[in-house]
Amino acid sequence: MLRIAFLASELTPFAKTGGLADVAEALPRTLGKLGHDVRVFVPLYGSIDFAAHGLERVEVSTEGFALRKGVLPRSRVPVYFIDAPRFFAREAIYTNDEDEPFRFLFFCRAVIEACQHLAFPPEVFHLNDWQTALVPLLLKKARLFDSAKTLLTIHNLAYQGVFSADVANAIGARESKDGIVNFLETGLVHADLLSTVSPTYAEEIQTPEQGYGLDALLRRRRDELVGILNGVDYETWSPAKDTLIPFRYTEKNLDGKEQNKKALLKELSLSQLEDVPLVGMVTRLSAQKGLDLLVEALPELLSRESFTLVLLGTGEAPYEEFFASLQEHYPDRVCFYRGFHNPLAHWIEAAADMFLMPSRYEPCGLNQMYSLKYGTAPIVRKTGGLADSVKLFDPATGEGTGIVFEHFTADGLRWALGTALELYRDRPSWRRLVANGMAQDFSWERQAEAYVAIYRRLLQD
Ligand code: ADP
Ligand code: GLC
Description:
This protein is α/β, with parallel strands linked by helices. 39% of the residues lie in helices and 19% in strands. It contains 17 helices and 18 strands. Strands 3-4-5-2-1-6-7-11-12 form a 9-stranded mixed beta sheet, with helices on both faces. Helix 9 crosses helix 12 and helix 10 packs parallel to helix 11 (317-329). The chain starts with a strand and ends with a helix. Adenosine-5'-diphosphate binds at residues 18-20, 22, 282-284, 312-314, 340-342, 345, 364-367.
């Protein structure tokens, strides 16, 4: 049994903007199931209703914060919330406020202090992204939990937490370069072991093209950098168990999928046309997600090909405007639902025939793995975790689970969508493709064992 402190800035079902929240829930839950003493730490954001979640106050005398405790749903894994209203009682998880670096510096410090008060000496501090990346340095400086090891998992190298030097004074001036402090870089230097969320991304981030200025450092530490693909929580994300979709179904009987599609088209006032596939997308609207390819290729593809599109997402204004205008042009065929809506995300997975993820880069990506289980053929670009989880379908052999395109170009996307639409008309091939996808198993059990193996490796060093 290992004692693990797991720190993250997002956690399903309490606070989520993307995949990190799902990982921070499912991985610790699985580690708990495997018998480890894992405890999760997150900030108590203003958007978290602690009364509704039944979070109780833990009686400890801490500096500048209170501690509240809950559990991860469907588990006994404790979740500790750092309750510091002056930093976290804001609606948004991430802000552009001046004190943004101090919010997460405070979080890192508070978790270390909380572990002391709880008489919980972690053997491993498992850190996730820049918001938690100062912990290794803080531990070293304060000479606390001497025998504990640190693992820093990179979920997205593009977000590094780069701030001007006033925060450097708070953590030690030596950590700043040219008046700049970089939280992630500091973590990548000081953590005992590094990981990221797919084997392919672990390679990609060592290249100048995808290293975001940190590739040299990552190359230097390549022997201490591991790529472990994320898993899927199939209790939440499978069509046979999903409580958020109108009709449940299994690979043996896909009638429910058809009913979900009909119901969604009706709900969104889209045309109900025989044999016309529904293409789904659920995403943060940021350049990472390959939206520029859609801006370039979609208007023409919609005029030429026969498909319906539903997109759920929110993010950068130019993309929101593009999709809004596309919807105006094609009110019967395009629905852009602007916002964050978890039940709708599930419904789209269940209702769509194809799921589009043309990412520029993708550390792991969860939706393509969800899509496979829902019998919704993923159309992905061959990058990061997408490359590791989807294999191009070959009608000649009947092998493969989706459509994979290589080059980040509008032509690449045109080819991929064209190929998918053609396959869709070839019913036997399509059925095979769907069945192959639904048979895939990306459950967390296996992936969590891979984490346990690296925790143990750390403790042996
Ligand atoms: P990323 O973490 O880069 O955003 P992932 O594919 O790893 O990408 O995870 C995205 C997660 O966030 C998925 O669970 C997806 O369903 C969810 N999601 C993204 N955008 C929305 C949205 N607008 N509404 C509901 N869920 C969303
Ligand atoms: C990041 C990445 C995404 C990954 C998620 C969870 O948000 O963009 O690819 O799946 O983290 O690890």
